[in-house]
Design brief:
single chain, 252 residues, alpha/beta, Rossmann fold, six-stranded mixed sheet, four-stranded antiparallel sheet, globular
Length: 252
């Protein structure tokens, strides 16, 4: 039997397509994420970003293509099996246990991947400190403000000590003053937690500041990928976000 927790060095979506009732949400998208890097995944609303994350984490299945982790085809693995293998995610909408405290939510996430109670408490201690949640560790998740709820989602993902973390709009609800500290959290996941990060967020300044590479989707297709500087000046990206006129102006 495969050792599902062996070290994974790459997560790959290979030529992934997904259609819903004839509507194409993803069209042969290939994306690779290595350990020790942050990849920003950007695109206009409806570009297919969350659909790709759902496919990669097992909450949806592709119409065509494969998802590969550590050389294993995991396309048909359920989410909990991917979690045990080192793949974690956050969600656009909170999925915390409303009746549990912030600390208890983190500990439960750690226990879910088979660690001892003592280890779960230790992980919670570290993550409460990292994410600035220590002062509200006893507060029920049900009454958290939106920004704190997002940070709890990140803490729950990191409690599993994943090889890869896919973050879907984690900075939504944070005020402008909180964003720089969150940028340091993302870098810490890469540098200190030894995990690759796929980051979706509408805060372009955040994505460009923390990403080693940026992958751009539009209407379910990859239209650009490269360093933040390369993507900033890409005409196709300008057209997707601002209309054809902006891209044409950039060429003048």
């Amino acid at each position: 039997m495969t050792d599902e927790r062996r070290p994974a060095t790459m997560l790959r979506a290979a030529a992934v397509s997904r259609s819903f009732a004839g509507v194409v949400a993803l069209d042969e998208v290939t994306l690779e994420l290595d350990r020790h890097e942050v990849v920003g995944l950007i695109g206009p609303n409806g570009a297919g970003k969350s659909t790709l994350v759902n496919v990669m984490t097992g909450f949806d299945r592709p119409t065509a293509g494969r998802v590969v982790l550590a050389g294993d085809d995991i396309t048909r693995w359920p989410p909990h099996r991917r979690g045990r293998a080192g793949l974690a995610r956050t969600f656009q909408h909170a999925r915390s246990f409303a009746g549990l405290s912030v600390r208890e939510n983190i500990e439960v996430s750690a226990l879910g991947v088979g660690v001892t109670t003592a280890m779960a408490r230790e992980r919670a201690d570290r993550l409460l400190d990292l994410l600035g949640l220590s002062s509200i560790e006893g507060v029920p998740a049900s009454i958290l403000p939106h920004g704190a709820e997002r940070l709890l989602g990140v803490a729950r993902a990191l409690a599993t000590e994943p090889h890869f973390v896919l973050m879907d709009e984690p900075a939504a609800g944070l005020n402008e003053a909180e964003v720089p500290a969150f940028a340091e959290v993302v870098r810490s996941v890469r540098d200190d937690h030894d995990a690759g990060v796929l980051l979706i967020d509408h805060n372009m300044a955040l994505v460009m500041a923390v990403s080693d590479r940026v992958h751009v989707l539009d209407e379910g297709r990859t239209i650009a990928e490269g360093t933040p500087d390369e993507v900033r000046i890409d005409a196709a990206v300008g057209s997707a976000y601002f209309g054809r006129g902006a891209a044409d102006a950039a060429d003048e």
